[in-house]
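thread: overnight batch results

M.L. [08:02]
morning all. the overnight job finished for the chain we discussed friday. pasting input first so we're all looking at the same thing
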Amino acid sequence: MNLWSRAAAMAAQTPESRNRYVDFLRALSIGAVVLGHWMQAAPYTGGGEITLSNALEYQPWTRWLTWVFQVMPIFFLVGGYSNGVSWQSARDKGRSYAEWLQVRLRRLLGPVQVLLGVWMLLAVGMALGGVDAGFVGGLSQMALIPIWFLAVYIMVVLIVPLTYGAWCRYGLWSFWALVGAAVVDDALFLAADLTVVGWANYAFIWVAVHQLGYAWRDGHAAGLRRGAAWAALGGVALVAMVTLGPYPVSMVSVPGDAISNSLPPKLPMLALALVHTGLLLSIEGPMRRWLDRAVPWTATVLVNGMIMTIFLWHLTAATLVIGAALLLGDVGLGVDPSSATWWAARPLWLAVYALALVPCVLAFGGLERRGGTGRTRAGWLLAGGATVACAGLALLALEGVAAEGAGPFGLRLWVLALAFVGAALAGGNPLARARAG
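M.L. [08:03]
and the structure it wrote out:
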């Protein structure tokens, strides 16, 4: 049975109660992430050495496009909806926090360990070939950018009982309280120059967007009128902040900018979340009717069945293509990213990236389609292990798997140990998942 037939069979078993638009938005967001990252990548050898830059540096007008392609808010919105449904279901069935959490952690932490293992092998191979550890670190950091989201999202998942409880008790006030905290945090970051406190907005802003997912589930954000109101509020705030305030236009980090809207996240990211939420939920009705059709729903099921693999491996595929281009005499890498020729070549590069991603999906996609088995671990052990793993993932997303002066072969062994040991404590064993299938 081929992938489409398997997806069609699964699609035919979808219960009527399922909100298919949630799955569609998840798939749509992955497509935007992949396309945005691949379009943004601008490796350049014009100066005699490879420069791992991006198009946002060379063509400032492209920074406005990040308002469309920065879709992390949608992931947290969808996550809030899904986590609200699954946690309420677990409570109704009498399942414990540990039982609920272990299933979710296995799906999140299992596949990423394989990715890290592959990059450790690549780092060792490049070290044996005489490649500088600093370059390996930069290369792997570029490929591992997606795991920063995983680190933050897992921490949000850990506190779902608290955030869902706050939603049930306080409703939208649980969202606005976090908005207020984010405003104070940005003020301290910008006006009082307390840059360290800015990292707290990873919690305030992304948990706030996650609360919007609960609001969507309970009907507080759906419909044309409500959606238009949320979008208008967010749009006015966003335009004001980037035109009258100190914030840059780009919704992703750009080298040279004094402030980043995403590292750590700041108020424009929250305003963008309101825009995306409002616009997408205002068309939920017709979109759900469209998804009742066999073809679009089967396509959605197909993508969702390999969504973690696509997300985790799409930049590794691109990085391997760039490495191959270097080995072939810098083919295609000497085109100035500020030129029209560079843009004309984008379709070809996108096609090659996509072809390179296919074997990754075929090789590793099964890890997320197989459920793990085994005795449920204690909730405190799962949460503690996940926290340790997230610390490792965050550090790897920032600086990669290797660095000058690090351990054998330049590997940042203690950082990698955080990710692997934490995942093991949290039950995210990819080999156990594979045996379960």
